[in-house]
TrEMBL record:
EC assignment: 2.7.1.11
Recorded superkingdom: Eukaryota
Free-text activity regulation comment from the record: Allosterically activated by ADP, AMP, or fructose 2,6-bisphosphate, and allosterically inhibited by ATP or citrate.
Organism: Podarcis muralis (Wall lizard)
Active site: 165 (proton acceptor)
UniProt-annotated stretches for the region N-terminal catalytic PFK domain 1: 1-389
Keywords assigned by UniProt, alphabetized: Acetylation, Allosteric enzyme, ATP-binding, Cytoplasm, Glycolysis, Glycoprotein, Kinase, Magnesium, Metal-binding, Nucleotide-binding, Phosphoprotein, Transferase
Principal cellular location given in the protein's record: cytoplasm
Record domain Phosphofructokinase: where: 17-322, 402-686
tRNA processing recorded as keyword: no
Name recorded for this polypeptide: ATP-dependent 6-phosphofructokinase
Record GO biological process: canonical glycolysis; fructose 1,6-bisphosphate metabolic process; fructose 6-phosphate metabolic process
Length: 780
């Protein structure tokens, strides 16, 4: 493992950073601006707002303003961009860029952080390449002094991609995409209830002129009947295919149809497919009552989701580090997300690949276009195709394997999406799928029945657990469970749940010596709001809970607007795992988060109160403190509330709030629906592979008793990985039900820096400029 590297030795003294937002706005841009400003000031650099994008840079004057810590207070939860964005024709000319360079030199700015789409970032790179020539020309014209050419010799550029379309290659998610999906899914969920009442068909048009990401993922997240995207046009004769699928779904007692159309949708001849065209087709061919809803700019608006706030905050800090480390030789880079990992990529490689997608589409090389969009896009498309098309009985393979699915532990939003995905993929694979009600306890009582393709229709958007879930472990029911497995001839098991599901699989695995029935492939998919399962960075349900916490914190902060200074103490769930408290604090802009994993004492509490008192004297009106429910036995929420109330007398007053079970409820977020759907599909495909490997022809049965036949499927940094549960034992703190090492603890200092604390931040993971990986086939 490399030695830990801290950024204390990276100083911004004497440096000036300019931050601008350009092109179309996106939710989360303000979080990125806030992170750049606060991190810049933290490393003692000067930071400037450049208002109205490149237009402000060209116009100069009051458009370029030095900012302070307080300048970005209370903007984290605001959609759009507070520093404005504008399309700028002048910057496309050398004349305009000459003015922009002159304005930057006047302020001493040689570091630019550009938040925008590929057009904005390409413009920034050209500006960087011309920089020296522009300064020389300015000096010749007498607009700047000759010495300035040497003093401001090179311009550093770091980009962050702010675009709701997620149309930039090299990054899994661009800032704003997750929030746009929230807007779309809110509308789809609302439309589904009215469509159900009237047996209607709805055609929804979503944004995405050149990229079908929003359409594809929202189709996956709501179980749409049909989707049209530019990268993967329907084949010739799609009209017949679509109409037959809609009528088949109606014949299976489905009362509504949802069709999603990206605004840039095309057919295989590159001719546009419009939402009106689709509607007219459905009305003429099938006679269904059909309505069109065009979402338009609703998708760009509203408050950013928790995911976008955390993503933008991480990217903003990473961007400042990249600027500080920049040299004349460093190419302009873009900070980006790969899996759960922040990475830096050469800007022009990403732009080139993004442009290659369009070229592939123009040349009708659609499979190349899908590959160039990246692994995540391709997986989404393949999963959607598997889940949306029910093959006829004659087309299905027959494996004679029976696979059981059950939920274990507390309910988590997204469990139902995972069950739906598992059932449908299992049926497509040729297995008989069985649903177990009420977890292991229900299993022992024989609450098992076969579940069909149609039974799980409409499950993706529903919260809680439709199958029913219990915390009971299998240990005390082993004989009865083994008997039920014999009776129903269960050959494989998929368990969707939290820490109890993990303990349950350990118990079943240990019981194999006594019971042959447990010698079958078993896999677990993590689903718990606490996100405390070892072997996975994320669990289904945690994102929904995080959004609930963030929304509630936003409302609580607003409740104090216009009143005197106030501090809120908020208690979150999570058992002993501080994920929700820590990430909620980062997303809501909290001043402190108390968690079990990082011990704290009365001195730290006192320091936090003093720190807040100082902040309140600068004109900041509200403070937010989060506390994980089990962070300390003695420093309870009441204790912290009383301490803050007493110590803050005369400066601020206090309120406390225990969020409770609202964190487990509600409709699942787009992230949880999508994550649950994809991870569950992968788990069932793995079970299929294991069933074939472990089938003993001589005995006519499945027999698996190796460690690697009982696995947990988890997200680790950039990949979904199957890990034998027995091997995860060493990584687990069983007393406190948490993993011994947790990735998000590395983000603790980030929260503290953004809340104005001095701390050390481990940057061992950042700083490496990587190259964009191009798919082999698309290159050929």
């Amino acid at each position: 493992m490399p030695d830990k590297k801290f950024f204390e030795n990276l100083s911004g003294k004497g440096k000036a950073i300019g931050v601008l937002t350009s092109g179309g706005d996106a939710q989360g841009m303000n979080a990125a601006v806030r992170a750049v400003v606060r991190m810049g000031i933290y490393v003692e650099a000067k930071v400037y707002f450049i208002y109205e994008g490149y237009q402000g840079m060209v116009d100069g004057g009051e458009n370029i303003v030095e900012v302070t810590w307080e300048s970005v207070s209370s903007i984290l939860q605001v959609g759009g961009t507070v520093i404005g964005s504008a399309r700028c024709k002048a910057f496309r000319t050398r004349e305009g860029r000459l003015k922009a360079a002159c304005n930057l030199v006047k302020c001493g700015i040689t570091n630019l952080c550009v938040i925008g789409g590929d057009g904005s970032l390409t413009g920034a790179n050209l500006f960087r390449e011309e920089w020296n020539g522009l300064l020389e020309e300015l000096a010749q014209n007498g607009e700047i002094e000759k010495g300035a050419i040497k003093k401001y010799a090179y311009l550093n550029i770091v980009g962050m991609v702010g675009s709701i379309d997620n149309d930039f290659c090299g990054t899994d998610m661009t800032i704003g995409t997750d929030s746009a999906l929230h807007r779309i899914i809110e509308v789809v969920d609302a439309i589904m209830t009215t469509a159900q009442s009237h047996q209607r068909t709805f055609v929804l048009e979503v944004m995405g002129r050149h990229c079908g990401y929003l359409a594809l993922v929202s189709a996956l997240a709501c179980g749409a009947d049909y989707v049209f995207i530019p990268e993967y046009p329907p084949e010739e004769g799609w009209e017949d295919h679509m109409c037959s699928r809609l009528s088949e779904n109606r014949a299976r007692k489905k009362r509504l149809n949802i069709i999603i159309v990206a605004e840039g949708a095309i057919d295989c001849h590159n001719q546009p497919i419009t939402s009106e065209q689709v509607k007219d087709l459905v009305v003429q061919r099938l006679g269904y009552d059909t309505r069109v809803t065009i979402l338009g700019h609703v998708q760009r608006g509203g408050t950013p989701s928790a995911f976008d706030r955390i993503l933008a905050s991480r990217m903003g800090v990473e961007a400042v580090l990249a600027l500080l480390e920049g040299t004349p030789e460093t190419p302009a880079c873009v900070v980006s997300l790969s899996g759960n990992q922040a990475v830096r990529l050469p800007l022009m490689e990403c732009v080139q690949m993004t442009q290659d997608v369009q070229k592939a589409m123009d040349g009708k090389r659609f499979s190349d276009a899908v590959q160039l969009r990246g692994r995540s896009f391709e997986n989404n498309l393949n999963t959607y195709k598997l889940l949306s098309t029910k093959r006829t009985a004659a087309d299905l393979p027959k494996t004679n394997f029976n696979v059981a699915v059950l939920n274990v532990g507390a309910p988590a939003a997204g469990m139902n999406a995972a069950v739906r995905s598992a059932v449908r993929i299992g049926i497509t694979e040729g297995h008989k799928m069985f649903a177990v009600t009420d977890g292991f306890e229900g299993f022992s009582r024989g609450l098992i029945k076969e579940i069909s393709w149609g039974d799980v229709g409409g499950w993706t958007g529903q919260g809680g657990s439709i199958l029913g879930t219990k915390r009971a472990l299998p240990g005390k029911y082993l004989e009865k469970i083994a008997e039920q497995m014999r009776t129903h001839n269960i050959n494989a098991l998929l368990v969707i749940g939290g820490f109890e599901a993990y303990l349950g699989l350990l118990e079943l695995s240990a019981a194999r010596e006594k019971f042959d029935e447990f010698c079958i492939p078993m896999v677990m998919v993590p689903a718990t709001v606490s996100n405390n399962v070892p072997g996975s960075d994320f669990s289904i349900g945690a994102d929904t809970a995080l959004n609930t916490i963030t929304d509630t914190c936003d409302r609580i902060k607003l409740s104090a607007s216009g009143t005197k200074r106030r501090v809120f103490i908020i208690e979150t769930m999570g058992g002993y795992c501080g994920y929700l408290a820590n990430m909620g604090a980062l997303a809501a802009g909290a001043d402190a988060a108390y968690i079990f994993e990082e011990k704290f004492d009365i001195r730290e509490l006192q320091a936090n109160v003093e720190h807040l008192t100082e902040k309140m004297k600068t004109g900041i009106q509200r403070g937010l403190v989060l506390r994980n429910e089990n962070s300390s036995e003695n420093y309870t929420t009441d204790f912290i509330y009383q301490l803050y109330s007493e110590e803050g007398k005369g400066v601020f007053d206090c309120r406390k709030n225990v969020l409770g079970h609202m964190q487990q409820g509600g409709a699942p977020s787009p992230f949880d629906r999508n994550f649950g759907t994809k991870i569950s599909a992968k788990a069932v495909l793995w079970l299929s592979k294991k069933l074939k490997e472990c089938y003993r022809r001589g005995k006519g049965r499945v027999f698996a008793n190796t460690e690697d036949s009982v696995c947990l499927l988890g997200m680790r940094r950039r990949n979904l990985i199957f890990q034998p549960v027995v091997q995860l034992k060493d990584e687990t703190d069983f007393v406190h039900r948490i993993p011994r090492e947790q990735w998000w603890l590395k983000l603790r200092p980030l929260m503290k820096i953004l809340a104005k604390y001095k701390t050390s931040y481990d940057v061992s993971d950042s700083g490496q400029l990587e190259h964009v990986l191009r798919p082999k086939q698309a290159e050929a």
